[in-house]
From TrEMBL, chain A:
Name of the gene: ugpA_4
Membrane topology: Multi-pass membrane protein
Main subcellular location of this protein, as a coarse class: membrane
Annotated PANTHER family: BLL4140 PROTEIN
Gene Ontology biological process terms from the UniProt entry: transmembrane transport
Residue ranges of domain ABC transmembrane type-1 in the record: 76-293
This protein's name: Carbohydrate ABC transporter membrane protein 1, CUT1 family (TC 3.A.1.1.-)
PROSITE patterns according to UniProt: ABC_TM1
Family membership noted in the UniProt record: Belongs to the binding-protein-dependent transport system permease family.
Native source organism of the sequence: Roseburia inulinivorans
InterPro entries registered for this protein in UniProt: MetI-like, MetI-like_sf, UgpAE/MalFG_permease
Gene Ontology CC terms: plasma membrane
Automatic annotation (TrEMBL), chain B:
Record's subcellular location: Cell membrane
One CC-aspect GO term: plasma membrane
Ranges annotated as spanning the membrane: 18-39, 83-102, 114-135, 147-164, 203-224, 253-271
Taxonomic source organism: Roseburia inulinivorans DSM 16841
Biological processes annotated in GO: transmembrane transport
SUPFAM superfamilies per record: MetI-like
Protein name, entry field: ABC transporter, permease protein
UniProt keyword list: Cell membrane, Membrane, Transmembrane, Transmembrane helix, Transport
Pfam families, A to Z: BPD_transp_1 (PF00528)
Family named by the database record: Belongs to the binding-protein-dependent transport system permease family.
Ranges for domain ABC transmembrane type-1: 79-271
Source domain of life: Bacteria
Length: 304, 286
């Protein structure tokens, strides 16, 4: 028999062995592609007609073109507008529903049913959901038909031909798909608040509005920041819904074209230099946002 | 909420409950209305659909279904492909994420701290930003039009790993592992026969999430699968959208959409309680 310490060492090598699959797969399918993406962003590499240009090393030329051409600013603006249009109603609704679900005095019946229903859209295939909305809101589709039957409009409204309504539809779909998730996250956070605080407030005669603003919201701050930043990271990745809804065109007038749709376009046209540059910029933004999440949840841990 | 402020004592509990129910019913309507219309329209013929919306179902569901199956889109093949990719992804992802979590949870080794920090740090990186390198790699490895690049990468899933690690901290005491060692159980044997069964609830939740996200995934599969025989359902949906849909039989379109979201809805209806709990569990950090 060996000594205890060497035995521990002998066991602990299994830590490395069990990590092999993860590390191997991560390096091959994530890390190498990431470095390859960054590497490609410094090269001129695209198809002009049928002739292949490059790959030639061009330094930061791709980034320069990207920012001076200006298209990326439009798409970044679109992405942000779509995210805000989706996130503001979503967070208000989620806070409200979360507060109701976690309020023991309110004793809502059927809250399991409601939670089940609001989470459902999150699991629906985004591309199928967008295709559904595309058909429902098309000129001859059921929504126009219903609106005309009720008498709100006299002729079909072209939902997808107007910037406002096209963006509104995308925001509505994303809001529907994500507010259930946000509600459950916030609710879990609210359930974690010490109930004695609520009881004390009740004894002091605080109204439910006061309780919400003075106790729930401040104590919920870390999880709220987490929700905002992760939603923003998710918002940057917005792709499936506008891609399918507009068939990749970002119509009307590129007003629903998002950053990832832009990336996807470059990937399809095999303009690898530009695709690389767009990817790297998205990577840097996400990295900064993740750092913020890291800090917030890290602080949270120290307090607890 | 503004109304609440105007009344100094706040609204009574009954009024608040009333408002809550009204809002919840409206929200429920907003969530389910689209699927109701989808169901109704899937049962109606193209001619009926052109004539406008009626709230009652018709009798053409089977006819639409037959037209779809015998049409140009390989829907059954798509369904089978989607199933293969999603089931294998869910199995590999949960098994190996549990293994990774176990490595970090149960052992003490030099690089542990750094590897753990690294996995947490890369958790938020979206797959889209590495897509270019990924597609090029898949091309170099000659893996285009195969399912390998869609299935194997799920072995390294930082989010699933994190969930498993959290769950292990609350359910897997180190003393249990030591007891197994004393009984002469090898490390790999311990993992497969003692740890995995204990992790079943967490594995079930994560298997569902991985299955669903893989089932719904569009961006990466669309870049890798070009052969009609290999396409998954989301790609077929996109193809349907790109087709000259005005000439399309709309009944078929609705059936196709219903067909592609149906499996997930069934899974959800059976397992909804675990799923909703799983989301809540994953959020409680630290």
């Amino acid at each position: 028999m060996k000594k205890k310490s060497s035995k521990a060492v002998r066991y602990n090598k299994w830590g490395y062995i069990f990590l092999i699959p993860f590390i191997l797969v991560y390096v091959v399918f994530q890390l190498i592609p990431l470095f390859n993406t960054i590497y490609n962003s410094f090269f001129e590499n695209y198809l002009s007609g049928l002739t292949q240009i490059g790959p030639n090393f061009v330094g930061l030329e791709n980034y320069k073109t990207l920012f001076t051409q200006g298209d990326i600013w439009i798409y970044a603006k679109n992405t942000m507008i779509l995210w805000i249009m989706c996130f503001v109603p979503q967070i208000i609704l989620s806070l409200l529903l979360g507060a109701w679900f976690s309020d023991v005095r309110l004793k809502l019946k059927g809250s399991r049913f409601f939670k089940t229903v609001i989470y459902l859209p999150n699991l629906i295939m985004a591309s199928a959901f967008s295709m559904l909305f595309f058909t429902l809101f098309s000129d001859g589709g059921p929504i126009n038909s219903i609106l005309m039957q009720i008498g709100i409009i006299s002729e079909p409204y072209k939902f997808l031909a107007n910037t406002g309504s096209a963006r509104g539809l995308i925001a509505l779909m994303n809001c529907l798909m994500w507010f259930g998730n946000t509600t459950i996250l916030l609710m879990a956070g609210m359930m974690g608040i010490d109930t004695s605080l609520f009881e004390a407030a009740e004894v002091d005669g605080a109204t439910s509005t006061q309780v919400f603003y003075k106790i729930t919201l401040p104590l919920l701050r870390p999880i709220l920041v987490y929700v905002v930043i992760t939603s923003l990271i998710g918002g940057l990745q917005l792709f499936d819904v506008p891609q399918i809804l507009t068939n990749g065109t970002g119509d009307p007038m590129r007003s629903t074209m998002t950053l990832i749709m832009f990336l996807n376009k470059h990937l399809y046209s095999k303009n690898y230099g530009m695709a690389g540059a767009v990817s790297v910029i998205l990577f840097i933004i996400t990295a900064i946002l993740s750092l913020i999440v890291f800090k917030v949840t890290g602080n949270d841990k120290r307090k607890a | 909420m503004n109304e609440n402020k105007n009344l100094k004592k706040g609204l009574g509990i009954h009024a608040r409950r009333f408002i809550a129910y009204i809002v919840l019913i409206l929200v429920t309507f907003a969530c389910l209305f689209w699927f109701y219309v989808l169901f109704i329209n899937a049962t109606r013929s193209n001619g009926e659909l052109q004539a406008g919306f009626t709230p009652l179902p018709s009798t053409h569901l089977l006819e639409n279904w037959n037209n779809l199956v015998h049409g140009t889109l390989p829907v059954w093949q798509g369904m089978i492909n989607s199933l293969i990719v999603s089931v294998l992804s869910a199995a590999l992802c949960t098994y190996f994420s549990t293994m990774t979590a176990y490595a970090i949870h149960a052992y003490d080794f030099k690089l542990k701290k750094y590897i753990y920090a690294f996995i947490l740090a890369v958790m938020m990186i979206p797959t889209q930003v590495t897509a270019l390198g990924f597609v090029k790699l898949v091309g170099t490895l000659k893996m285009e039009d195969t399912f390998i690049p869609l299935i194997v990468p799920t072995i390294a899933a930082p989010v699933t790993f994190f969930y498993m690690k959290q769950y292990m901290e609350s359910t897997l005491p180190v003393s249990l592992i030591e007891a197994a060692r004393i009984d002469g159980s090898g490390e790999f044997h311990t993992f497969n026969n003692i740890v995995l069964p204990l992790m079943k609830p967490a594995i079930a939740v994560q298997a569902i999430f991985t299955f669903v996200s893989s089932w719904n995934n569009y961006f990466v599969p669309a870049l890798i699968l070009h052969n009609d025989k290999k396409k998954t359902l989301p790609i077929l949906i996109a193809q349907l959208r790109a087709a000259d849909w005005l000439k399309f039989d709309m009944g078929q379109v609705y059936v196709m959409i219903a067909f592609s979201i149906f499996p997930v809805i069934i899974i959800y209806l059976i397992l909804s309680r675990h799923i909703v709990q799983g989301v809540a569990l994953g959020s409680v950090k630290g």
